[in-house]
Write a structure and sequence with these properties.
Layout (H helix, E strand, L loop, with lengths): L9 H7 L10 E3 L6 E3 L9 E2 L2 E2 L7
Antiparallel strand pairs: 1-2, 3-4
Length: 60
């Protein structure tokens, strides 16, 4: 079985892991009701997506 000859330094491990962080979700605004929503999703408030109402809301 292969075994490493020397320990990798903390700097080298950190360089390898530099892209492992979790990125924030990108937020856009609904053109219909101006609610902040994640991009490429149906607006949870009014059900609007890409120029049309996809889900009928039950607000009174």
């Amino acid at each position: 079985m292969a075994v490493p000859k020397r320990k990798h330094s903390n700097s080298r491990s950190g360089k390898r892991r530099s892209h492992h962080k979790v990125k924030r979700r990108q937020v856009g605004y609904c053109p219909q009701c101006n609610t902040a929503t994640p991009t490429h999703t149906i607006c949870p408030k009014c059900g609007y997506y890409q120029g049309r109402t996809v889900v009928e809301s039950t607000e009174e």
